[in-house]
Amino acid sequence: MVLSQAISSPCRWLRVLDPASGAAGESRSVQAGAHGIELVLPTDPSLARVAGRVVSAGGEPLAHVRITPLRAPPPGLFHAYEMLPVRLQQSVLTDEQGCFELPRLATAGATLQLSHERTFFSSVSLAHVEDLEHLELVEPLLCELQVVSVDAGDGATHAKALDGAGRQLWFVEAHWQSTSQMLQAQIRAGRSGVLRLPETAKTLVLYAGERELSRMPLALDPGRRTLIQP
Q1: Residue pair 93/64 in contact by the 8 Å Cβ criterion
Q2: CATH of domain 2-138
Q3: CB neighbours (10 Å) of residue 33?
Q4: 11 within 8 A of 30, measured Cβ to Cβ
Q5: Are 24 and 106 contacting, i.e. CB atoms less than 8 angstroms apart?
Q6: Do domains 2-138 and 142-228 have the same CATH topology?
Q7: Cα angle 68, 73, 77; round to 5
Q8: For labeling, which of 33, 45, 71, 182 is most exposed (least CB within 10 Å)?
């Protein structure tokens, strides 16, 4: 068991957690310096097997996706404490078929965080999932794209990407020692940096300031870099 505490002088808030399942007892306010405190971890009625698989938007099984179950602290505990969710247990990795299993998880208030080098970092709430043992989590693969020869006379300043429903998508751009995530990619002297965006991107829109210059269809391939030459 793990005791979770937050300081609020002259009291402390305590609760007990089972790191194997994420089951938690109620939070208690305890006078600082008190002795003989007894915390009870009740049987969590939401314990369940959570299993499924992770695939790309094209249906490709994704191996080695790290899945970490998290639970937010109870509402109203303390703002400083609520900034960080409580890690429930060790994360698991998907196998070669993209499958994963969490044998006993306290699902009430839980989310699954997914991370993989070929996708965006994302999270999935279990709050309204009906079939916890057959999850199908779709994570679009990131693809490389670069704008390489825009006519400088057009005055292109930036680009945006849209999916098939017209929703704007995020770009990722790598720098010397960091990466940045943005909704529009800068274009300088007719070129952009090497960008990454989801395989679900279907349209690239070029702008000169607030003025739209052109729209180009996209058919991204996760296995190669797409060069845009308007």
Answers
A1: yes
A2: 2.60.40.10
A3: 7
A4: yes
A5: yes
A6: yes
A7: 165
A8: 33
Contacts of 161 (CB under 8 A, 6+ apart): 168, 169, 171, 185, 197, 201, 203, 204, 205, 218
pLDDT in tens, 77-121: 544 333 344 554 578 999 999 999 999 888 888 889 999 999 998
The owner of tokens 């709430």 is 125
CATH number of 142-228: 2.60.40
Q: For residue 60, what is the DSSP state?
A: -
Q: Residues in the chain, how many?
A: 230
Residue ranges covered by each domain of the chain? 2-138, 142-228
The answer to whether the beta carbons of residues 199 and 56 sit under 8 Å apart is yes
Q: Give the span between the Cα atoms of 225 and 185, in whole angstroms.
A: 16
